[in-house]
Design a protein that fits this description.
The protein is α+β, with helices and mostly antiparallel strands. The protein folds into two domains: 14-47, no CATH class; 51-193, Nucleoside Triphosphate Pyrophosphohydrolase (Alpha-Beta Complex). It is built from three helices and ten strands. Strands 4, 5, 6, 7, 8, 9 and 10 form a seven-stranded mixed β-sheet that branches. The radius of gyration is 19 Å and the shape is globular.
Length: 195
Amino acid sequence: MTGSLRDEDGARPVLSRSTAFRGAIWDVVRDEVDFAPGVRFTREYIAHTGAAAVLALDDEGASDVRDARVLLIRQYRHPAGRTFWELPAGLLDHEGEDPMQAAGRELTEETGHRAEHLRHLLDIHPSAGSSSERIRIFLATGIGEAVTDFVREDEESEIELRWARLGEVLDAIRDGRLTNATLVAAVLAVAALGV
């Protein structure tokens, strides 16, 4: 195959769709797919709203990108049965909200910080075989304290914050101590780009 190296849009025809399970946050849908002539199959997957995440980077005084600091949050994730170091992130579940605005909102709500500058870093599909989820990850710079009256509740009530050197985070990823997909993808992207 020739051409550029890129993922391509182009869903195959869906012959039927039903909701296999209706959940509090997302649903599981069942599609019968007309894949190719004579080839049909059924797939069940999470119909996900999508999410936005933000890598807040403080590179002031850093001699190289490994010396820059990254703002991490520590949060319990029940499906995995683990507490993860992650990036601030949240569902795109506010009608009409731009993903970049959602990333900035999540940064403030989860960390009490704001960014002077936000720019798109990358998109990931963390589990394309079982979920329609797409996470848009943004790079935030010019980080400062935010004025907010937001109160974290439920699973967010125990969020811990930590500034860590990018080099320390890279070492922890390489050693298998940090495994959150969004964090791993964003940190590796920033390290590769040298931003």
